[in-house]
Design brief:
The complex is a heterodimer of chains A (about 110) and B (about 110). Chain A has no helices and eleven strands. With about 110 residues, chain A is mostly beta strands. Chain A is globular and about 40 Å long. In chain A, strands 2, 4, 5, 6, 9, 10 and 11 form a seven-stranded mixed beta sheet that branches. Chain A is about 0% helix and about 55% strand. Chain B has no helices and eleven strands. In chain B, strands 2, 4, 5, 9, 10 and 11 form a six-stranded mixed beta sheet that branches. Chain B is globular, with a radius of gyration of 13 Å. Classes of the chains: A mainly beta (about 110), B mainly beta (about 110). At the A-B interface, β10 of A face β5, β9 and β10 of B.
Chain lengths: ~110, ~110
């Protein structure tokens, strides 16, 4: 599992409230990713980080922000949660380079926005 | 338009059957990955391919770079193989994921 944990694992919240999800890794990987997984869609990239304080948007970044103040932690924040953000959120790290590059995933966080 | 298409979306098999899941992609890639996700569970990597074929136990993965196609085969399927199988491609800039094939193996 490449030492990746996510917290919380389950969250129920109300529309309009802020939510922060945490991804923690123990192996000093430079690249970290946040994806969401929804029925009928493949995993979709929300944001990613290529180092401390270095982040960039993915294809579904609207309504989300991220922060990475230290190598081991990558935080995903929903400033004002909406029902459309009900999803399963996966954090991932990148390991290897070139055609040996692969991603390892955390256990996921199930978020329900009522 | 999806960069990665998988078929079938759903598959039910009897224990012991030979299973094939297909993946087609439309972008240039450095590698293709097959991932497994059990119900309610996390995602684990089964194979990473950039050419040819790889085998691990009862699982075999093949890729044809010219045709932009990969297959995942499961020989002598077992109920514990029931899971969602996801094809993903690495373009060198980012990963694209298929929507997954949900496999159910009936005893």
């Amino acid at each position: 599992d490449a030492g990746i944990t996510q917290s919380p694992r389950h969250k129920v919240t109300e529309t309009g409230t802020p939510v922060t999800l945490r991804c923690h890794q123990t192996e000093n990987h430079r690249y970290m990713y946040w994806y969401r997984q929804d029925p009928g869609h493949g995993l979709r990239l929300i944001h990613y980080s290529y180092g401390v304080k270095d982040t960039d948007k993915g294809e579904v970044s609207d309504g989300y922000s991220v922060s990475r103040s230290k190598t081991e932690d990558f935080l995903l924040t929903l400033e004002s949660a909406t029902s459309s953000q009900t999803s399963v959120y996966f954090c991932a790290i990148r390991s290897g380079t070139g055609n040996q590059e692969t991603q390892y995933f955390g256990p996921g966080t199930r978020l329900l926005v009522l | 338009k999806n960069e990665v298409e998988q078929s079938p979306q759903n598959l039910t098999a009897q224990e012991g059957e030979f299973i094939t899941i297909n993946c087609s992609y439309s972008v240039g890639i450095s590698a293709l990955h097959w991932l497994q996700q059990h119900p309610g569970g996390g995602i684990v990597s089964l194979f990473m391919l950039s050419s040819g074929k790889k085998k691990h136990g009862r699982l075999i993965a093949t890729i044809n770079i010219q045709e932009k196609h990969s297959s995942l085969h499961i020989t002598a399927s077992h109920p514990r193989d029931s899971a969602v199988y996801i094809c993903a491609v690495n373009t060198g800039n980012q990963f694209y994921f298929g929507t997954g094939t949900s496999l159910t193996v009936i005893p």
